[in-house]
Design a protein that fits this description.
The complex is a heterotrimer of chains A (292), B (235) and C (347). Chain A is mainly α and 292 residues long. Chain A has eleven helices and two strands, in the order H-H-H-H-E-E-H-H-H-H-H-H-H. Chain A is globular and about 65 Å long. Chain C is an all-alpha fold. In chain C, 78% of the residues lie in helices and 1% in strands. In chain C, strands 1-2 form a two-stranded antiparallel ribbon. Classes of the chains: A mainly alpha (292), B alpha/beta (235), C mainly alpha (347).
């Protein structure tokens, strides 16, 4: 029972981090029909920059905000300069483009910041809490992570559903040509979308770094798990992304705990294949499929 | 008010429009008729900026639209209701309506325009918070037109509004269209394959064939010209 | 598969000639360059297989590095148990085992399209190498399994250099693979693969068993990856999980797109760039006195930048650009001749 609880808490906490990446991927997918394979690497890069700031005296919280802002700028900049010209070309080209960005960022980071594994500070204690003599298997930092992610999701929901700019972004994603005819600057909305997605990636990077440390490839697995979660949930559904990511987090945790940590990813793969064989378009796929 | 001057459009090697010129004055409805592939849809798509012209100019109240991005043209007061409804099914009816006028600065008037749209098309009011996907064909067409009007355009481009519509609903919409055009001094370009219905509501008519203007007259004159009707309009 | 005999012959002659030229060329190259030549040839095999799957059949695979791993580990395991096994046998075993693995993956992935397929193969790429760690006692864990390089046959002389023999094996294997795939692609099978890619619904209506085609495409490309993996094991000398990570899969995919998607020649260009670019970058930096962080990562940074740049500037890849340029040139020449003729007539 005790193991189960520990694994569950671990799985949920990790799952929420995968969920941010999954949401970022879904956001970009819905708007541009592109999977940004560099999403994790972009987050890693901003995390390096954040650590740089912290090590030069900036407080954690200010650095956190800088990370989000920097991530936003990075994403928006990449969309405008590099992705926009390629958007209308064959889809595989965009895949290679984002893979190129992935490779480039993972090589630039150690060149700029040094390649050895670094530790990253956590703003709260990572020791498991206990009430009296009962162990709770969850730390303050874990609660912070889960809280931050939930808060972000609610903010995103309100942003997209209640603001005019959110409406514009949804319109630009669902019907770009029609949106154009209605005066929506679709190009700008796409840039904004990439910026937001990168902001989410930056958040993921900073939140996961204390646990897995900071090194150039540290977000590779997070990307894979986030992508798996998004695919599991159905790429067009933000709710699916979150649910899928949580399932992946839990699944990996249980497999790792009960079967062995090196079987984790294979376990995730099996879960993914099992779901996709039954529902090839993901769990929450809409009945009416948009063309990819 | 809407001037199309010597417009030529080509896709690859195929010429879709060949030196097409026409004018639509304020408060008037001009219908563009012709068979499938005559270039009617290309014409409106070029005016609204979705397609780039090889030669020629498009002007609205003197302002040159040629070569501008579609969103810029929309913000200059040109509303294009595309073939096949062109609503965004994943958002609600109300959101579709709001979308049309979002770029306008007058917030109060935006809301007023939407309320007027609901008055024009009451069935939409009942469904305002439902996803647009739940609307029937006729209601979608209503939404499309309502949304275009909610932006308070000066020029209205309607591409085959009769497609898939029940005759009564079509008559309703066409009737309202005529009133609105006069009231709001709109310049309306109406693309139609259903020539009979179009000629009954329009003031002027232009007939396209293989990308060229082959006839141009008052709608009543054209409706009475049997030879022309047989040759180009199929009735 | 109605393959005209003349095309078959043409291909055979072409690849035979190429093989002879390259084999002769190895005598003029240093050990270092023969080693690189071997690596290029190995990647050509894997890339050509991936071209058939992704370029022609349209199934995106981000996991071919894992398939190469299957081939490599098959060979390494067999050699571990029976070090005296003939080289041809281990290679053949790898082709079969990886082909079967490809078949299993193909069946599991038959209904997946686009990013869903990408996601599944991505998970495969990251997860499969971990099996080597889990079954560490058999598969060597992180340290991996050692593989002795194949000895050149006695008939070539006792002092036949090791890298030259490796290069010869790789070149011959690559030529045979290209020959087989070129014929596959030109013939009816190629048309079927393309048909399914272009329009699945239409293909089904035409009576094509789409699922079967998808699985077969996977098996063929997997067999190529298995062959490449087996040769790779001999080439590297150690088969360990780190050699077959996500990066390898990404490198293969990017190679075929840069080279020219859907073209076997593209696979050749892409593999060449894949191998030579880091060599060239390293050559540049070795003269400068740079920190190890920079020298270790610069080749990759350059490769990433080249990918980004290539997608911006050469959307059809190298082979695609060559084709369109030569097509454009031909048109220009024809037009010139036509204009000249017209001028003559008017005179």
């Amino acid at each position: 029972m005790r193991t189960f609880l520990i694994l569950t808490v671990d799985g949920v906490t990790n799952g929420f981090v995968y969920a941010i990446i999954a949401l970022a991927l879904v956001m970009i997918w819905r708007a541009t029909r592109v999977i940004n394979y560099a999403q994790g690497a972009m987050g890693m890069f901003t995390t390096y920059a954040t650590l740089f700031a912290i090590s030069h005296g900036v407080t954690y919280w200010l650095a956190f905000v800088i990370a989000l802002g920097g991530g936003f700028l990075l994403g928006a900049g990449i969309e405008r300069l590099v992705v926009r010209p390629v958007e209308s070309r064959p889809p595989l080209n965009v895949v290679i483009l984002t893979l190129g960005l992935l490779i480039l960022l993972e090589a630039l980071a150690p060149m700029l910041f040094g390649g050895q594994v670094k530790s990253f500070p956590a703003p709260f204690s990572r020791i498991d809490l206990s009430i009296g003599t009962t162990q709770l298997y969850i730390s303050t930092f874990d609660i912070f992570v889960i809280g931050a992610v939930i808060l972000t999701m609610i903010t995103l929901l309100l942003f997209f559903q209640r603001t005019t700019i959110g409406l514009r972004m949804r319109a630009a994603a669902f019907g770009p040509e029609i949106a154009r005819l209605l005066g929506v600057r679709v190009g700008r909305m796409l840039t904004l979308g990439w910026g937001l997605a990168a902001l989410l990636g930056a958040m993921a990077g900073v939140l996961i770094a204390p646990a897995i440390f900071l090194y150039p490839n540290n977000m590779d697995e997070i990307l894979v798990f986030g992508f798996t979660g998004a695919v599991l949930g159905g790429l067009d559904s933000p709710v699916g992304a979150v649910v899928g990511a949580l399932l992946v987090g839990l699944g990996l945790s249980y497999v790792g705990g009960y079967a062995g940590s090196d079987l984790e990813t294979i376990g995730g793969l099996v879960i993914l294949i099992a779901v996709l064989m039954v529902r090839p378009q993901g769990l929450f796929a809409a009945r009416r499929q948009r063309e990819a | 008010m809407l001037e199309v001057i010597d417009l030529t459009v080509a896709y690859g090697g195929v010429v879709a429009l060949d030196s097409v010129s026409l004018t639509v004055a304020e408060g008037m409805i001009t219908t563009v008729l012709g068979a499938n592939g005559a270039g009617k849809t290309t014409l409106v798509r070029t005016i609204s900026g979705l397609v780039k012209a090889r030669r020629g100019r498009v002007r609205v109240a003197g302002t040159d639209l040629t070569g501008r991005a579609p969103e810029a043209i929309a913000r200059l007061g040109v509303a294009h209701v595309p073939e096949g409804h062109g609503i965004i099914s994943e958002i609600t009816v109300d959101e579709n309506l709001r979308l049309g006028g979002l770029w306008r600065r007058d917030r109060a008037d935006q809301r007023l325009a939407i309320d007027e749209a609901y008055e024009l098309f009451p069935p939409l009011l009942a469904r305002r918070h439902l996803p647009a996907a739940s609307l029937s064909g006729g209601e979608r067409q209503m939404l499309s037109v309502a949304r275009a009007l909610a932006a308070r355009p000066r020029v209205l481009l309607l591409d085959e509004p009769s497609l898939g519509l029940h005759a009564t609903v079509l008559a309703q919409i066409m009737d309202r269209l005529r009133t609105l055009t006069r009231e709001r001094r709109l310049a309306v370009l109406l693309i139609e394959q259903n020539a009979r219905s179009a000629l009954s509501v329009a003031d002027d008519a232009v007939v396209l064939s293989l990308g060229r203007v082959v006839a141009r007259d008052r709608a009543t004159q054209l409706a009475g010209d049997d030879a022309l009707r047989h040759a180009y309009l199929g009735f | 598969m109605h393959m005209s005999r003349s095309t078959l012959l043409r291909h055979a002659v072409l690849f035979l000639l190429l093989a002879v030229v390259l084999l002769a060329g190895t005598y003029t190259l240093s050990a270092f360059w023969n080693y690189n030549l071997a690596e290029i040839a190995i990647f050509v095999i894997a890339a050509a297989g991936l071209t058939v799957l992704t370029g022609i059949n349209g199934q995106l695979s981000l996991g071919h590095g894992a398939l190469m791993a299957v081939g490599a580990y098959t060979t390494s395991l067999l050699l571990k148990e029976q070090p005296q096994l003939p080289f041809l046998l281990t290679v053949l075993a790898s082709i079969v085992s990886t082909g079967l693995a490809g078949g299993i993956i193909g069946v599991a992935a038959a209904r997946l399209r686009g990013p869903y397929l990408a996601g599944a193969t991505l998970a495969l790429a990251v997860g499969l190498p971990q099996l080597a760690i889990h079954f560490g006692s058999v598969l060597g864990g992180n340290q991996g399994l050692n593989v002795a390089p194949p000895a050149a046959p006695a008939v070539l002389g006792g002092d036949f250099p090791e890298e030259r023999w490796l290069a010869w094996i790789a070149i011959v294997a690559a030529m045979i693979t290209l020959f087989l795939l070129a014929n596959l692609v030109r013939g009816g099978a190629g048309r079927t693969l393309r048909a399914v890619h272009d329009n699945e619904v239409a293909a089904r209506l035409a009576g094509i068993d789409v699922a079967r085609v998808q699985v077969l495409a996977f098996m063929i490309s997997a067999a190529c990856a298995g062959l490449a993996g087996s040769l790779f094991a001999y080439w590297v000398g150690i088969t360990a999980p780190t050699g077959f990570g996500l990066q390898l899969s990404l490198q293969l995919l990017s190679a075929i797109v840069i080279g020219g998607l859907g073209s076997l020649w593209g696979a050749v260009w892409g593999s060449t760039i894949l191998v030579l670019l880091p060599v060239w970058t390293n050559g540049l930096t070795s003269n400068l006195n740079l920190s190890s962080d920079i020298t270790n990562n610069l080749p990759l940074a350059v490769y990433g930048a080249v990918l980004v740049f290539a997608m911006l500037v050469l959307p059809r890849g190298i082979q695609g650009t060559v084709t369109s340029l030569s097509g454009g040139a031909r048109q220009w020449f024809l037009k010139r001749r036509l204009d000249q003729r017209t001028a003559e007539v008017e005179l």
